[in-house]
Amino acid sequence: MSNLTPDDVLRALKTVVDPDRNKDVVALGVIQGLAVKDGHVSFALEVAPEEGRAKEPLRLAAEKAVLALKGARSVTAVLTAHKPAANTAPPRRDAGHHTEGAPRAGAPERQGPAGVKAVIAVASGKGGVGKSTVAVNLAVALNRLGRKTGLLDADIYGPSIPRMLGLHGKPTSKDGKKLQPMAAWGLKAISIGSLIDEDQPMIWRGPMVMTALTQLIYDVEWAPLDVLVVDMPPGTGDAQLTLAQRVPLAGAVIVSTPQDIALIDARKGLAMFKKTHVPVFGIVENMSTFVCPNCGHESHIFGHGGARETAAKLGTDFLGEIPLHIAIRETSDGGTPITAREPDGPQAKAFIALAERIAQKLDAGDTRPAPRIVME
Ligand code: ADP
Questions:
Q1: What is the residue with the minimal CA distance to atom 20 of ligand 1?
Q2: pTM score, two decimals?
Q3: For a pocket test of ligand 1, which of 231, 329, 339 has the largest count of ligand atoms closer than 8 A to its C-beta?
Q4: How far apart (Å, rounded) are the C-alpha atoms in residues 228 and 220?
C-alpha cells in the first residue's frame, strides 16, 4: 500500500516551472484530471495547441518530479490541448445536439500520436465475439482501400494480433526512445503481446497497463498514418474506460454476435463511449450467418439481425454483417487474414464493405456523440 495523496503530488508539481512562462505548473493551472491510486499517479498537462509536443520536456519534468516522491509507483502524464478556434478540421462532435454528457465548450482536446490522422477503436462488450478478427481484417481492408493503416493490439487480457498477423519476434528501437512498429500485410502493427512474456501471468495493475498502452500509442513511430485501428481489451472496465479517455478517438466500432446476451454487453460498450464522449460509428454483427463450406447453405446458428435491431433501437448505425465461416477462423489463426489471403472472396468482401463505411465516416467527420443509452 502507498499513502501518496493528491496533495503530495501537487506539492511536487509546484517545483516544476514552465521556463516559457516562469511559473510552476500548479500556479499556471495546467494540471488536469489528477488521479492517485495506491501510488499510481496520472494527470494531464494542458498546453496551447501550437505548443504541442514542444512541451514534452515539461511533461517529462513533471513525471520525474512526481516519480521522485516516496510512495510513487508509476506516473503517467499526458499533454492535452484545446482545439484552436479556427481549425478547419470537421467538428469532432455535433454541437447542434448538445446532449447530456457532451463535452463542455472549450473542453480540452486530447492530442493524438504525431502524424496519425485518425485513431479508431474496435471494441466489444465481452470477449470471444470476434473483436480481434474484425480489427485485423478491417485494418487490412482499409489498407487495401489506399489508406495507410496501423494496428495496435491493446487487448491486455488476450493479445491475439501477433498470431493473427503472423508476427514473430519483438519490435526494435533505433534510438532507444521510439519503438519501430512491425510490418505485416501492408500494415504497421504493434501488440502488447509482443512486449510481454506469454508465460508471465497478467497480474498488472491497471495504471501500469495504462502506462504501457499509452507508450504504445505515443512512443511508436506510427507516422505517417491515415488510420490507426486499436483493438481494445474486451469489456467495459477501468482499463477500457481509461484508454477511451486518454486516446483521442475519432470513433468506435462495436462488435457483437447476434445473441441477446452479447447484445446486452454491446450496449454497455456504447454507454462507455458515451461517457467518454467518443463518437460511435456503429455496431457490426459478427458470426452473423453460417455458410456451410461444403454446400454453401446458409443458416443462422446464433440467430440473425439482432445487432441491426439493437443498433436501430439505440439510435446508432448498423455497419454490416460478417458471416461465420471456417475460412475466417482458419486464416485468422494461421496468420494470414482472409482479407489478405482471398481479397476478392465473399468473406473478405464483407470486411471491405465495412472498411468502406468507416472510411466514409472518417471523411465525412461523422462524429456524432454516442447515443443516449438506457440500461434495462
Ligand atoms: P475476441 O477478440 O472478441 O476475443 P477473436 O477475434 O479472437 O475474438 O475470435 C475468437 C475466435 O473466433 C477465433 O478463433 C476466431 O478465428 C474465430 N472467429 C471470429 N470471427 C469469426 C467468423 N466470422 N467466422 C469464423 N470464425 C470466427
A1: 130
A2: 0.71
A3: 329
A4: 12
What's the rounded Cα separation, in Å, for the pair 373 and 211? 30
pLDDT in tens, the chain (376 residues): 778 998 999 999 999 999 988 999 999 888 877 888 888 888 888 887 777 678 889 999 999 999 999 999 888 887 776 544 333 333 333 333 333 333 333 334 567 898 999 999 999 988 889 999 999 999 999 999 999 999 999 987 778 899 999 998 888 888 888 899 999 999 999 998 777 655 554 444 455 667 778 888 888 999 999 999 999 988 887 778 878 888 889 999 999 988 766 688 888 888 888 888 889 999 999 998 887 878 878 777 766 778 888 888 888 999 999 999 999 999 998 999 999 999 999 999 999 999 999 999 999 875 544 455 544 3
- d(CA 75, CA 167) in angstroms, rounded, equals 30
Question: Is the CB of 137 within 6 Å of ligand 1?
Answer: no
For β-strands 74-81 and 40-47, DSSP reports them as parallel
Report DSSP letters for 81-105, one per residue. EPPPTT--SPPSS-TTS--TTPPPT
335 lines ligand 1 (CB under 6 A): no
* CA distance linking residue 257 with residue 128, whole number of Å: 9
Cis amide leading into 90 (omega within 30): no
Pocket probe mutation, ligand 1, options 261, 291, 326, 332, max atoms within 8 Å of Cβ: 332
Could you tell me the distance, in angstroms and rounded to a whole number, from the CA of residue 105 to the centre of ligand 1? 40
168 Cα: distance to centroid of ligand 1 (angstroms): 21
CA 42, CA 61: separation in Å to the nearest integer? 14
Q: Is 316 touching ligand 1 by the criterion CB < 6 Å?
A: no
Ligand 1 neighbour 136 (Cβ under 6 A): no
Residue 130 CB neighbour total at 10 angstroms: 22
What is the CA(145)–ligand 1 centre distance, in A? 23
